[in-house]
Amino acid sequence: MNRSKKRGGSLEDKVIIARNRKAFRDFFILNTYEAGIVLQGCEVKSIRNHRLNLRDSYSRIRNNELLLYNMHISPYSKSRAEDINPTKTRKLLMRRREIDKIAGKLTDRSLTLVPLRVYMIKNKVKVELALAKGKARRDKRRDIQNREHEIEIKRALKKY
Question: Is residue 60 part of a domain?
Fold first, then answer.
């Protein structure tokens, strides 16, 4: 019987709660990392109900801690809503070596940390962070043109 602990879990174990689709459009994704989030109980219940938005969120390293800004978690309807700020700064949990490695890569001014998705693995809420570089307008246009060409090619192939 193999009792080795598998990191990240399999795809069957992951329940994706939210995706940041805008990140793929606005950034080149270089590396991805997995981090846990420090949450309160009512926030976890809201996340299970998919009451979460990653649209303008980003991550930074402050005082050797990884923090997530502007992630909006709507208050849980059956809790005391006045206690919770929906967009408060949340601490992310990651090993010190990984944080130091990311901090070394972030010294380049053009890179940033962007959350790509939030998912649950065995009742634990995780965030997939990406080390990303911003796209220029011409890059975005080129991506749109490439997508349109691929669609045209698929349509042409279906006809024949």
Answer: yes
Contact partners, residue 94, CB within 8 Å, separation at least 6: 33, 35, 36, 66
Q: Is 120 inside a domain boundary?
A: yes
Structural domain of 111: 14-135
DSSP 81: G
**Contact indicator for 115, 125 with CB cutoff of 8 Å:** no
pLDDT band at 43 (very low <50, low <70, confident <90, very high): confident
* Torsion from C-alpha of 75, 113, 16, 141, nearest 10 degrees: 110
Q: Which residue has the higher pLDDT, 79 or 141?
A: 141
- Say which residue, 63 or 139, is predicted with more confidence: 63
Residue 110 lies in a domain: yes
Give the pairing type, strands 90-93 and 58-62: unpaired
- Distance separating alpha carbons of residues 5 and 50, to the nearest angstrom: 28
Total structural domains in the chain? Answer: 1
CATH number of residue 41's parent domain: 2.40.280.10
C-beta separation of 76 from 54 below 8 A: no
Torsion of CA 7, 53, 92, 77, to 10 degrees: -100
Residue 141 near residue 29, CB atoms below 8 Å? no
